[in-house]
Design a protein that fits this description.
The protein is α/β, with parallel strands linked by helices. 35% of the residues lie in helices and 15% in strands. The chain has a single domain, classed as TIM Barrel (Alpha-Beta Barrel). Helix 2 runs parallel beside helix 3. GO terms for molecular function: monooxygenase activity; oxidoreductase activity, acting on paired donors, with incorporation or reduction of molecular oxygen.
Amino acid sequence: MTGLTIGLSLSPTWLRGGAWRDPSSGIEDLLSGELFIRAAQLAEQAHMDFVFKPDALLLKKEPLVTWPGFTGLDPVVMMSVIARETHSIGLVPTFSSSFTQPYFVARETQSLNHISRGRAGWNVVTSLGGKDNFVGVEQRTSVELYQDAQDYVETVRRLWGSYPASAIVLDRHQGIFAKPELVRPISSPGVFDVAGPLTVPAYDDHPLPLLHAGGSAQSKHCAARYADAVFAMNATTESGVALKEELAELAEREGREPTAVRVLPGLSLCLASNREKAEDLAAQSFDSYAPGHVKHWSVVGTPSDAVEAIVRRYEAGGADGFIALPAGSWNSLQLLVDEVIPRLAELGLFRSEYHSHTLRGHLGMGE
C-alpha cells in the first residue's frame, strides 16, 4: 500500500499534566480498560493502521502527585480486551527483550494474533530501567542489550514457526486434529537456548509485523535487520529525512529493500478550533510548554494546521506516517479522527475504508 501509515499511542498522552482534571477526560476508566477501548474504536473509525501500547517496567513516584505517569495496565492484557471490541485495527503491544523470555513473548503475541484474527504485532524494545523488579537479571550495557535483542527476536520468530498453521487439520471424520510431523523443535544458537516448539500454533504462515522504538546506533542496526517500522523521536523534518536515509542504507546491507523499514515519528497533537485555544490547552497540560523544547514532532493549533504539517513532512521525505500522541484533552483525539484523517484521505494520502482486516494487510505486507 502507498500513502501514510498511521498509528495511535495508548499512552495516554491526552491525560498528561493537568488534562486529566477535565470532567470529560475519562480518568475514572484509566484502569478498567474502557478508556482505551473507546480510543481504539475511534482510531478504527478513522481506519488507522494500528493502536500501539508503550510500556514501562518501573514506576516513578514523583509524577503521581499531578498526573498518572507510568500508571497503567499490562499491554497484552489491554490489547486482548480491545481485540474483542474492535474488528479491523492492528494491535501492537510492547515487550522488552531485556526482562522477558522469548518463549513467553512468542506465546503471548501469537495468542493475541489468534484472538484478533491476524491483527497482532510486537513493539520490540530494550529496557535500561526496571532491572530491580526482576530476579536474576544482570546489569548490561546498551550495546550488550541490543546484541542480545537480535538473538531474542530471531528466537521468537523461530518459535512462531515451530507449530505452523498448516499442521492443524481438524479432520473430524478421521479423528485427526493435527499433523505432529510438522511440529518441530527449533534450532536456537546464541544467547537464548530454547527448545520449542510453541504450544500455540501460528495463526498463518507469516511472522507478525515488528515495530521498534529506540534511537541509538545499536537500535538502528537492530531495526534495519528485523523491524517493519520504527517509532522515532524526530522533532524536525531534517532529522526525519536523515533517519530514513540511514535506515534505508542499513536495510540494504542486511539484504532488505531500502524501503523495508517505515519511519513513524511520534506526533504530539494539541488541537482545538483555533490556535489560541490550542496554545492555552498546551500551556495547561505541560509544566513548561515551549515548542522549541518538545522532543517529539509537535503541532499545537487547528486540524488544518495538523494536516498541513503532516503533508509537508511526508512530501519532504521526513516520515512515512506517524504515531499520534494526542495532547491537551480527549478532544485532540476526536479532532484527529473527525477532521485530520478524513482530510488526509481526501488528499489521497490515507485510506477512506479498510481493504484488509489484518495488520499485515494494512501495512501492505500481504495477508
